[in-house]
């Protein structure tokens, strides 16, 4: 994700709009906004992986 956002050119107001839509803090410069958005995506990806692992564990547990 980080590579994608670094290579994508965004205007500051676009970053602010994304932050507003996702209930993130809108204060700071472009670099701070990009870092905040990257952390948002990292956290979301991490949660999705955790949920997928939990679903897999639930399938493998057999009731006795």
On the 0-100 scale, what is the average pLDDT?
82
User: How would you sum up the global shape?
Assistant: elongated
Helix proportion: over 70%
Tally of contiguous helical segments: 3
Order of helices and strands: HHH
Main pleated sheet: none
* Beta fraction: under 5%
Distance between the termini: 42 Å
- Which spans of ≥5 residues are poorly predicted at pLDDT below 50? none
The structure class reads mainly alpha
Rg calc: 17 Å
DSSP summary, beta strand count: 0
Provide structural commentary.
This protein is mostly helical and 64 residues long. It is built from 3 helices and no strands. It has helices at residues 2-7, 12-21, 30-60. Helix 2 packs parallel to helix 3. The longest helix has 31 residues, at 30-60. It is elongated, with a radius of gyration of 17 Å. The N and C termini lie far apart (42 Å).
